[in-house]
Known about the structure:
Elements (H helix, E strand, L loop, with lengths): L2 H14 L1 H10 L5 H11 L6 H17 L17 H10 L2
Amino acid sequence: MNAVEALDELQRKARHDDKLREQFIKTRDAEDPLGGFCSVCRETGYELYPMDIVQAGDEFYAAMKRSTNGGGENSPVLTGEDDPYELFFAGLQEL
């Protein structure tokens, strides 16, 4: 399972588990929010580390860039590139 799939599963679980959702939300105020977030992920059984989250976002953005006009240097700047970490919390805030 890749990081994005793990985040999707964790988000589904957190949407149905108030305690887990609160644990994730509290990490936003931590000194190291991403590190705290990943710690909760690991406590829940998902081996995610900060670099996994960063890499997942970079890979997604790179794939989008490659798909735009051949991905060359002249490809248009993409606004609103997806950040899996921020999308995770956006999905929780919908509740």
